[in-house]
C-alpha cells in the first residue's frame, strides 16, 4: 500500500518556522481535498507594531484601583494581613462601595 501524504502549510507560517520561531495552530484533514491542513492561530501580538490597549483607570482607591478594559471592569484591593480579618473586611467593603459610587456617577454622566 503506497500512500502519499501532503500537508498544506501557508508560506508565512513556513517563514516563521525557517526563522526558528514557534507556531501554534491546528492541524486537520480537509474533507474536500483530503489534504492535511495547518492553520496558525491569529495572534495580535505577532503583528508588527502592535501594542495591547491600556486599561483606563476609573478611580484610584485607598487600597487599590478600579479600571476598565475593552471587555471587563477590574477591581483590585490589597490589604496587609496583619490588620486582622475585621479591619480587612471594613477596608475592602469601603473600597468596593467607593468604586460602585464612582461607576454609578460615570453611568449617569454617560447618559447625559
What does this 3D model show about the protein?
The protein has two domains: 38 residues, no CATH class; 56 residues, no CATH class. It has two helices and six strands; from the N terminus they run E-H-E-E-E-E-E-H. The strands form two sheets. The protein has a three-stranded mixed sheet, with no helix packed on it.
Radius of gyration: 25 Å
Poorly predicted ranges (pLDDT <50, ≥5 residues)? none
Distance between the termini: 74 Å
Q: How do the SSEs run, as a string of H and E?
A: EHEEEEEH
Number of domains: 2
Secondary structure category: alpha+beta
Give a count of the beta strands, DSSP E runs of length 2 or more.
6
Enumerate how many helices there are, as a single number: 2
The dominant shape is: elongated
Helix content: 25-40%
- Major sheet characteristics: 3 strands, mixed
The neighbouring-strand order within the major sheet is: 1-3-2
Strand content: 15-25%
What is the average per-residue confidence, as pLDDT, rounded to a whole number? 87
Question: What attributes does this structure have?
Answer:
112 residues, alpha+beta, 2 domains, 3-stranded antiparallel sheet, 2 helices, 31% helix, elongated
List the helices and strands and how they pair.
Layout lengths: L6 E2 L2 H8 L6 E5 L6 E5 L15 E5 L3 E5 L4 E5 L7 H27 L1
Parallel strand pairs: 1-3
Antiparallel strand pairs: 2-3, 4-5, 5-6
Amino acid at each position: 500500500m503506497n500512500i502519499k501524504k501532503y500537508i498544506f502549510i501557508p508560506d508565512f507560517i513556513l517563514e516563521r518556522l525557517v526563522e526558528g520561531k514557534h507556531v501554534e495552530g491546528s492541524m486537520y484533514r480537509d474533507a474536500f481535498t483530503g489534504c492535511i491542513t495547518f492553520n496558525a492561530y491569529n495572534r495580535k501580538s505577532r503583528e508588527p507594531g502592535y501594542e495591547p490597549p491600556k486599561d483606563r483607570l476609573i478611580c484610584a482607591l485607598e487600597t487599590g484601583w478600579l479600571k476598565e478594559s475593552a471587555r471587563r471592569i477590574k477591581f483590585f484591593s490589597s490589604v496587609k494581613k496583619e490588620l486582622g480579618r475585621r479591619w480587612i473586611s471594613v477596608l475592602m467593603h469601603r473600597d468596593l462601595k467607593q468604586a460602585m459610587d464612582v461607576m454609578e456617577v460615570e453611568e449617569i454622566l454617560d447618559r447625559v
